[in-house]
Design a protein that fits this description.
single chain, about 475 residues, alpha+beta, 10-stranded mixed β-sheet, 3-stranded antiparallel β-sheet, about 25% helix, Glycosyltransferase family 25 protein, glycosyltransferase
């Protein structure tokens, strides 16, 4: 039997030839001797990296009646839809439209501020910017231009950070806040994301572009329609590694990064490249974010901006039915039904169209501006300032974002006459609102009589169409 010895540290050492050898102590690694400390530090490091990369993954519910549960989107639920103010452009004598707008907003818990419109006859010749040709336009066109300038002037004067400008024949789906939440996720990415969107990181699909020169808007001087549409699911950009890192008080992204959110229109083109070169890298400037299986989007056969439109919107053939898309508005856009401006955007637009000059219908001029083109000033044209590169070149970028189909649309009441010039010669042929399925205006009588959301009439069902009495 071997004799053993116990040392002062209670470590056992065998005895050999009556000589005691002190036991050698093993020095454990620091993480083994302090497992709780190691676990705590590891968890902290994981949490820090996760929070820096974007925080929670925002899940988009499949049910279009459901809201997105995320603190950054909660302001969209307020009475101004996440904007500082909502301005409604209304001619004082159109009390019929003011009554309808007041009632529609009240049933949707939306707070409006009415801004008096002006007629073209009331504008003195000395008040027009160049060129002189714009004074020969129809009175309704001139009055519309000045009314929009007055709205922009108000926003600049009051230093409003973001404002939504709407015309008084606007309509929206009862799921307006749900739609705007999804748009806000897209607008943040499209306005704030910098650099190239590489394929390994982003699941980009290049779909054939079905837009042609004949079906596109004829308001742009240059025709740079690409052959493909780089597309990316909206749900894929909400992972932690894809979210823009800019934090802003606006749910729609940093107002210093965008000019216009053109979310109410009567048709928009797909984004176009600023260069004639082929194989352009995919960036936020030309990518299209897609929201599939969106129940607020009518079926493809209903995607027409006007009753007299000969062909369907290119969206109908480019993407599967019930797909909503979000992108930069560089392919032309028409009708200023509803658009939001940042303070930056309001100043730029007021300078361009109120001071520098304009020469056409305001909505088409705005569509050209968003596409990077300026009004045709004729002999009054000024040479563009020389580019000095760097920050100056970056500041010239015009960032206009849009949704197809639009989130807001023109409502065509029975025998509704336009004071600008009108659709179809001044009258819409049908009592309807294009693009909106559960339209507030089309269901207004049911809503004021207490009908619930799921009891309202879909004016654009998948099969056929329903006439709402």
């Amino acid at each position: 039997m071997k004799r053993i010895s116990v040392d002062n540290f209670s470590l056992i050492s065998p005895k050999k030839d009556d000589v005691f050898f002190p036991a050698k102590r093993r020095r454990n690694a620091w993480y083994a001797s302090s497992p709780k400390l190691f676990t705590t530090l590891l968890c902290f490091m994981v949490w820090y990296c996760w929070s820096q990369l974007g925080g929670n993954i925002i899940e988009i519910p499949g049910d279009q009646f459901a809201f997105i549960e995320d603190p950054s989107l909660v302001d969209i639920l307020n009475t101004t839809l996440g904007f500082e103010k909502i301005l409604i452009l209304n001619l004082p004598f159109r009390t019929d439209r003011r009554d309808a707008m007041t009632l529609s907003a009240a049933t949707s818990n939306i707070h409006l501020e009415f801004l008096d419109g002006v007629t073209g006859e009331s504008i003195k010749p000395s008040a027009y910017p160049p060129p002189l040709e714009n004074q020969k336009l129809q009175a309704g066109i001139r009055g519309s231009w000045r009314t929009h300038m007055s709205a922009l002037q108000t926003i600049v004067e009051q230093n409003i950070t973001t404002a939504l400008i709407m015309e008084d024949d606007v309509d929206w789906d009862i799921r307006i806040r749900q739609n705007l939440q999804r748009f806000a996720l897209a607008s943040r990415f499209l306005a704030e994301k910098k650099g190239t969107l590489s394929n390994p990181q982003y699941d980009i699909e290049n779909r054939p572009n079905t837009e042609t020169k004949e079906t596109s808007f004829q308001i742009l001087n240059e025709n740079k329609i690409g052959s493909t549409l780089p597309s990316l699911p909206l749900s894929s950009i909400n992972s932690a590694s894809h979210q823009p890192t800019t934090h802003s008080s606006s749910p729609y992204g940093n107002p210093a990064e965008w000019d216009i959110l053109w979310i109410g229109h009567c048709g928009a083109g797909f984004p176009r490249s600023s260069s004639a070169e082929k194989n352009q890298p995919v960036t936020a400037a030309n990518v299209i974010l897609t929201q599939a299986d969106d129940d607020t989007v009518p079926n493809s056969q209903h995607l027409k901006a006007h009753p007299f439109q000969g062909t369907l919107d290119p969206l109908a053939s480019a993407y599967p039915p019930h797909t909503r898309i979000f992108h930069r508005a560089t392919g032309g856009e028409l009708c200023t039904v509803a658009y939001a401006v940042s303070q930056r955007g309001a100043r730029r637009l007021l300078h361009q169209f109120g001071v520098k000059g304009w020469n056409g219908i305001f909505d088409s001029e705005l569509g050209r501006w968003c596409a990077g083109e300026d009004p045709d000033m004729g002999p009054h044209a000024r040479p563009p300032p020389a580019s000095s590169g760097g920050k100056s070149a970056k500041a010239k970028e015009r960032v206009c974002l849009t949704s197809q189909p639009p989130i807001f649309a023109h409502h065509h009441p029975q025998q509704g006459e336009s004071d600008i010039g009108g659709l179809g010669g001044g009258y819409a042929r049908k009592f309807e609102t294009k693009y909106l399925r559960l339209s507030v205006r089309m269901n207004l009588e049911r809503i004021v009589n207490g009908a619930k959301d799921r009891e309202l009439v879909d004016q654009w069902p998948d099969e056929g169409g329903q006439v709402i009495p």
